Amino acid sequence: MFTRSLIPDREPARSPGRESARSRTMRAARQALRVLAAELGTPAGPGTPLFGNVHSRWLRRLPYIVAFAFTVILLPSTRTVLSDYGMSGGLAVWLVGGLAIAQTVPLLLAVTRPLQAWWVIFAADILCAMALTGADRIAGRAWPWPPPVVIGYLVLMLALSLRERRRTLIAVWLTTGVVGLLFAPVAPDRSHSTGVLLFVLTGVLLLMGAILRERGAVQRKLLEQETISEAERARRTLLEERARIARELHDVVAHHMSVITVQADSAPYRISGIPKEAQEEFGAIAATARESLAEMRRLLGVLRSEEAERHHGPEKTPQPGIGQLPKLVEGTVRAGVPVELALPEELPALEPAVDLSAYRIVQEALANVVRHAPGARTRVSVTATAERSRLTVLVVNSAPPAPSAPLETGGTGHGLIGMRERVRLVDGSLDTGPLPDGGFRVAARLPLSALPLSAKDSATA
User: Fold this and answer.
1) How far is CA 390 from CA 358, 418, 443, 444, in A?
2) Exposed, middle or buried: residue 415 (CB in 10 Å: 0-12, 13-18, 19+)?
3) Cut 0.85: pTM above it
4) Which of 312, 341, 360 is the C-terminal boundary of a domain?
5) Is pLDDT at 207 greater than 70 in this prediction?
6) What is the CATH number of the domain that holds 336?
7) Where are the transmembrane segments (predicted)?
């Protein structure tokens, strides 16, 4: 005889894997809602107006004009449509007016705070859809979003996409779609439902606005990088020119130091009766001069480019001066630039630094003519004024004979940088600038003898 047990059967134990999967899903959903709420509640901008950073005054005012125009147009049309929808439903006049104002006037706020404007307009749109749900004349009409509501919402989306982050735009788009789906089961006429339409159009406008904003950001970054690159290029050119000048002046200074060394070493043999203390002093001078020469050679090794050293070897040719200008002009004439050269009958005795600087200034000026004004008539004149102790170097070119594209169009002015450095080296002055007829003028005034370092320091002090 069998008896039924009065103890109820235990419920089957839940699968640990199913329970963990369900908990993970719930946890992921809660995390997604928290992220969605955080994105919708955190504006990206500090309240700066749209297009507030552009230089054009008209573009800065454009968002205000557009927002004001849509507000003026949509406010009466929204009120009329809502009154027509709720005519038989008994919607109060104050409710129709309040909803119309809440759905349109915040467009003015969207110019500076589009996310806050979205909260107001979207909440008003939801209240409007709920108020029109029981209206008798809603059948056969667009719902839950009437046409004026759709237009105002799309204008708001454009302003939102130009300001907010990508994650915020996705959150707004998903929220719009979810609310549209929630209204779908109670739609009086699903053939005229605008939930899907607004969802699609919102996504398109948000995508377009985000692309335009990111494109503008990329262009601004490229412009900043170009500006930085140009500044770095100019700085690098200046440093290279200074290093080049230092390499060239090495031979000048090394010659004088070598003379000092030879004179100090040979003084005891050339001059009889020199005391022992004086001989020791001459020896110390010669040793100091040799050490200075060694240090200069080390410095030159640092300044000289490794590439130039590898391909051309050490620079052993004499440095040029004013005496080599006829040869320089002859080469420029062969390049297709008619050049006239005017030199004094007797070349003054110049210090090597001044002589080299004058030659390099003419060389850079003629190179600029060849590059930027090919074929232009050019005049080079060098004059020396003994009473003023000044050497004037003047290079003037006219406009090119025929409009032609220059060989270089960068216009970076790197040649002018080298001229200024050389003039500053010998304490001279440089005057450059365009001429009224389309030509260019370079005028350098150099001292016949370079100012000693101590005199420079005292003049600067």
Assistant:
1) 12, 20, 12, 10
2) buried
3) no
4) 312
5) yes
6) 3.30.565.10
7) 62-79, 91-111, 118-139, 145-162, 169-187, 193-212
